[in-house]
Structure prediction request, 359 residues.
Amino acid sequence: METAAVKSMLAWYREHQRVLPWRSLPTPYRVLVSEVMLQQTQVATVMPYFERFVQTFPDFAALAAADIEAVLKLWEGLGYYSRARRLHACAQQVMENGGELSDDPTELARLPGIGPYTAAAIASIAFGRPYPAVDGNVLRVQARLLADDGDVSSQSARRRVYERLLAVIRQTPDPSAFNQAQMDLGAMVCLPRQPLCDECPLRAFCRAFASGEPTVYPRRPERRVTPRMHVAVGLIFHRGRLLILRRSEDQMLGGLWEFPGGKLESGETPTQAVEREVREETGLTVEIGALVGVIRHAYSHFRITMHAYRCRLAEVGEPVVACERPHAWVIAEDLPKYAFPKANHKIFACDGFAEGFQE
Prediction:
């Protein structure tokens, strides 16, 4: 970037920067928490979660000492739950290393959940170190600025942009403002489909704008078809309590609670899948009752259609759950104490769900 372009962008940032809760007090801890939350998640979604999180866990010591169940519960609904587990592990490692966060991106990248981008963002925003933070917004701004028709999703393109900006940021008196200005520019002005070029401080320097077709850049790879999975779960009630299982740490949504169930096998009906999955996961035999609901939910790389059935135990007497994973029989009032995936919350809202506690 030309020196004049940098000056123009920083002047725009001073006047138009977003008001974000982590910017008001950019301590290393708050910056780290915000950057981890912002991984693959929009700013508007993150803000209320960030506020609640830092109020409950105000520093590395508080987070490190917390039970992972409490961390996951506070993270509930934000998605990508492995981030919460890694953030918790990161705080514990920081405390083991003396309680202070390094300002060196190489050292930061050795912490759980901290990749090159997050390490550079923390180093620049929290410590003022001259390292470019190259996220999707920055890649789009840079691709348009230079009319770069390369695939910005590739690692080689990201590295090329990083090296180019590294030389620029080393000459910039405020690395934090430099990085955040590009982020804000991409989020507020240099939008993916309808860029507000008339409001852009880089318009005079932008080759994509000069070409008359700014939205041609960056080049986008063809979108893949999102696969859909069909799953079925059993809501097993017994004497006013509901059986829930905790997902293993190495699974997707690890550490969260769920109902017994799983994917339908070839040629299997949802009710057959529930009977099989319940038997395999818990050792229990159930009779399938009413269909509580059919839930459709989208994750980042796939979608699910989930059939939820109320179930009765076929055995008499007190049930014995043969499950290696943690499990619990919970009353309705205690459900909010457990962290569940979003798809399960949709089941809670279905007509007929609460009736199972009264059987």
Summary: The beta strands are 228-238, 241-246, 257-258, 261-263, 286-298, 303-313, 327-330. The chain has a mean pLDDT of 93. The two ends are 68 Å apart (CA to CA). The chain has 14 helices and seven strands.
